[in-house]
Amino acid sequence: MGAEDELLEAVHDTHADALYRYVVRRTGDEEEARDVVQETLLRAWRHPEVLERSEDSVRAWLFTVARNLSVDHLRSARRTREHSTGHPPDREERDTTQSVLDSWLVADALLSLSPSHRAVVVGAYYGGRSVAELSTELGVPAGTVKSRLHYGLRALRLALQEKGVTA
C-alpha cells in the first residue's frame, strides 16, 4: 500500500462519518448520501495534492465537494422526475372501451332478430353449442337449426350494416 493510499484511508477514517451525516441532513436520503460521500472520496483520490494540505484545509475541501455534489444530485433530472416507492406500479391494463361498445352494438343488433333466429345464433356463437345440441335443446330438426342460423346471421349482418358497421 502506497503513501497516497494510506493518506486517503486516513482521510476516510477521519472524515467519512461526518461527511455522511452532513449530506444526509442536506438531502434527506441515506442512499444518496452514501453515493455523494463515495464520489467525494473518489475525487479526493483523483486529486492527491489536496490530501497533502493541512487537516482543516482537507476537511473544508471535502465538505465543499460534498455540498456541490449534493446540490447537483438535488437538481438532477433523475431526482426531479423519478420518485422511488415501496410498492410497484399498478399493472397496465388494456383499454376495453372499444370491445364494450362493440358488444353493445352486437347485443342491440341481436334484439332486432326474431326470437327463434336469436336463440340459434346466440346458442351457436356465444354458447358454443353444435347444430345437434341446439336441435335437441330447441326440439327442432337439425336442418331447421342450420336454416335459422343461416338466415339469422344474414339478418344480423344487415342490422349491423344499418347501424354503420361495414364488413
From TrEMBL:
<keyword id="KW-0731">Sigma factor</keyword>
<feature type="domain" description="RNA polymerase sigma-70 region 2">
    <location>
        <begin position="13"/>
        <end position="80"/>
    </location>
</feature>
<comment type="similarity">
    <text>Belongs to the sigma-70 factor family. ECF subfamily.</text>
</comment>
<dbReference type="InterPro" id="IPR007627">
    <property type="entry name" value="RNA_pol_sigma70_r2"/>
</dbReference>
<feature type="region of interest" description="Disordered">
    <location>
        <begin position="76"/>
        <end position="96"/>
    </location>
</feature>
<feature type="compositionally biased region" description="Basic and acidic residues">
    <location>
        <begin position="82"/>
        <end position="96"/>
    </location>
</feature>
<dbReference type="Pfam" id="PF04542">
    <property type="entry name" value="Sigma70_r2"/>
</dbReference>
<dbReference type="Pfam" id="PF04545">
    <property type="entry name" value="Sigma70_r4"/>
</dbReference>
<dbReference type="InterPro" id="IPR013325">
    <property type="entry name" value="RNA_pol_sigma_r2"/>
</dbReference>
<keyword id="KW-0805">Transcription regulation</keyword>
<dbReference type="GO" id="GO:0006352">
    <property type="term" value="P:DNA-templated transcription initiation"/>
</dbReference>
<feature type="domain" description="RNA polymerase sigma-70 region 4">
    <location>
        <begin position="109"/>
        <end position="157"/>
    </location>
</feature>
<dbReference type="InterPro" id="IPR014284">
    <property type="entry name" value="RNA_pol_sigma-70_dom"/>
</dbReference>
<dbReference type="InterPro" id="IPR013324">
    <property type="entry name" value="RNA_pol_sigma_r3/r4-like"/>
</dbReference>
<keyword id="KW-0238">DNA-binding</keyword>
<dbReference type="InterPro" id="IPR007630">
    <property type="entry name" value="RNA_pol_sigma70_r4"/>
</dbReference>
<protein>
    <submittedName>
        <fullName>RNA polymerase sigma-70 factor (ECF subfamily)</fullName>
    </submittedName>
</protein>
<keyword id="KW-0804">Transcription</keyword>
<dbReference type="GO" id="GO:0016987">
    <property type="term" value="F:sigma factor activity"/>
</dbReference>
<dbReference type="InterPro" id="IPR039425">
    <property type="entry name" value="RNA_pol_sigma-70-like"/>
</dbReference>
<dbReference type="GO" id="GO:0003677">
    <property type="term" value="F:DNA binding"/>
</dbReference>
<dbReference type="InterPro" id="IPR036388">
    <property type="entry name" value="WH-like_DNA-bd_sf"/>
</dbReference>
